[in-house]
Amino acid sequence: MKKFVLPWKKVDAAMAAAFEEHYLDPKTGGISSPDPVKGKDGPGVGEVVIPKRPASVDYSWMIQFSDTVLDKDLRARLFEALRDPKSGMNNFLHEVASDPEGHAQWKKYRDFHAFKYVKQWIAALGIDCDFESEPTEPQRHRQPGKRDIDYDEQCLDSVLLATAQDAGKISFHELCLVLEQVVKNVELKKVLKSIIRDGWLTLSPPLHGPLHGKIKTMNENLNKDGDAVVVFTRKGEARLLDARLKVLKKKLDIAQKDPAFIEDFAEYLNNAGQEAACLFLDYLDAEEINRSMNVLAGIRLAPGTRTDAAMRRALSRVKKTGGN
Description:
Layout: E1 5-6, H1 8-16, E2 23-24, E3 31-32, E4 48-49, H2 55-66, H3 72-82, H4 88-97, H5 100-124, E5 130-131, H6 153-163, E6 169-171, H7 172-179, H8 188-197, E7 201-204, H9 211-222, E8 229-232, H10 234-257, H11 262-271, H12 274-282, H13 286-291, H14 293-296, H15 306-316
Helix pairs in contact: 1-5, 2-3, 2-5, 2-10, 3-4, 6-10, 10-11, 10-12, 12-15
């Protein structure tokens, strides 16, 4: 059978569409949507529903892109925009659009990662096809400074989540003790120094002077038990929100499959902070809520809180299908 060419941008647009459902024909690559005129109110024979991409995925792309921006002023504005959990994504798009060069870089960055996301979904379906206008990986405009040791995204998320356990202010040595339980097979002190050098965390009081002076002062402080307090930077706060969204999604997926973990999800939802909880609930689509009704419907939240209001909004989006 001859391969078809998939218009991946149309699949990406369907994944990003807030409300309208779209379907993919895995044999032809054709994309369709409900059409009342033709009497189509669901997927046709052999068609599959194109899933909605969680907003937390796009949020992650924005954070990762911001860290590559060479223009220091724009980079700071983007991270500042992303700190607002309710309108951060819109604020980011507004800020990046104000800089023509930055906007062009963002478009290339987003297209590449959106393509990878679509390609992974297509591969999971077992579809063998070619892709229309396949993008190339964009040039990274800003590289991190010299590190003591490299670390991956999972390690960074673990460090930020651990730092947040004590209201975002914890001593360096206490943080190492916490991380020994969750981060394995790495040299913790070197990892933390690298994360601080990359600007995700800083020390309190802030370090001043040229870079070599900062590193010298940091090393001196970190060798004194209890003297160095680790706190979040603006971009660290934005990344922390992203890390919490990932944890919420993972815990919800687990609770869907095993009701024994519903209480664990409920506890994390209550303790993740209203910003993360509200953003997570507001961006759940109706399909996801339907799948998660056994989890969400039984959770009790404090009345009158923002999280409680977000839960009510989420449940109101449930599709009114047979049996619901």
